[in-house]
Amino acid sequence: MAKRFVVGDIHGCLPKLKELLLKVGFDSQKDILYCVGDLTDRGPESVETIRYLMKIKNFFLIIGNHDLWLYHYLKENEIDRRWLNGNHGGETIEQFEQLKVSEEEKHAMASWMETMSLLKVVDDYVLVHAGLPLKIKGGFDDEENLSEDFDTIVSKW
């Protein structure tokens, strides 16, 4: 039976992530890994972190502010000033440039990131990055209202 693991704020620290997954006995072919946001920035291996996670069969990303900024960079080459000012986005961009990541690979990463969501309900748990509004208008199954809530939450990042 597949085990489920939740991790957050990887921030490009791939060796630490691998060490943790090894320690808990994570099997990338059958277990499920949820990340509650912030795959990149701060650590020295943001690009490698994404490449590694893209290979995990059952990986689910709950969006964090760093993920949103990265997505816009990968998809549209758009750079949010908040990402650069104190959030280590410049370092991540440098890593992409130093590794000469192709536009094709950037778009593949962006497409992969398009599966991210604001939250994930797993049994009796709600997985989120940085909280939810005090009241979800239509509940967790109401996608239209969740989209509005998503815009409200993200605009505060």
Which SSEs are present, and which pair or pack?
Layout: E1 4-7, H1 14-23, E2 32-35, H2 46-54, E3 59-61, H3 65-76, H4 81-84, H5 89-98, H6 103-113, E4 119-122, E5 125-128, H7 143-155
Parallel strand pairs: 1-2, 2-3
Antiparallel strand pairs: 4-5
Helix pairs in contact: 3-6
List keywords for this structure.
alpha/beta, Purple Acid Phosphatase, chain A, domain 2, 3-stranded parallel beta sheet, two-stranded antiparallel ribbon, 12% strand
What does this 3D model show about the protein?
This protein is of the alpha/beta class. It has one domain (4-131): Purple Acid Phosphatase, chain A, domain 2, CATH 3.60.21.10. It is 44% helix and 12% strand. The chain is built from seven helices and five strands. It has a three-stranded parallel sheet, with no helix packed on it. Strands 4-5 form a two-stranded antiparallel sheet. Helix 1 links the parallel strand 1 and strand 2. Helix 3 packs across helix 6 (103-113). The model has no long low-confidence stretch (mean pLDDT 87).
